[in-house]
Amino acid sequence: MGFCYHVLFLLSICVGVSLATPIEDQRRDRITYLPGQPKNVEFAQYSGYVTVNEQNGRALFYWLVEAPANRGPKSRPLVLWLNGGPGCSSIAYGASEEIGPFHIKPDGKTLYSNPYAWNNLANILFLDSPAGVGFSYANKTTDLYTFGDKKTAEDAYIFLVNWFERFPQYKHREFYIAGESYAGHYVPQLAQLVYRRNKGINNPDINFKGFMVGNAVTDDYHDYVGTFEYWWTHGLISDSTYRMLRIACDFGSSQHPSVQCMQALRVAVVEQGNIDPYSIYTPPCNDTASLRSGLRGRYPWMSRAYDPCTERHSSVYFNLPEVQKALHANVTGVSYEWKTCSDIVGNYWTDSPLSMLPIYRELINASLRIWVYSGDTDAVVPLTATRYSIDALKLPTIINWYPWNDNGKVGGWSQVYKGLTLVTVRGAGHEVPLHRPRQAFILFRSFLENKAMPSSS
Question: What is the DSSP letter of 283?
Answer without folding.
Answer: P
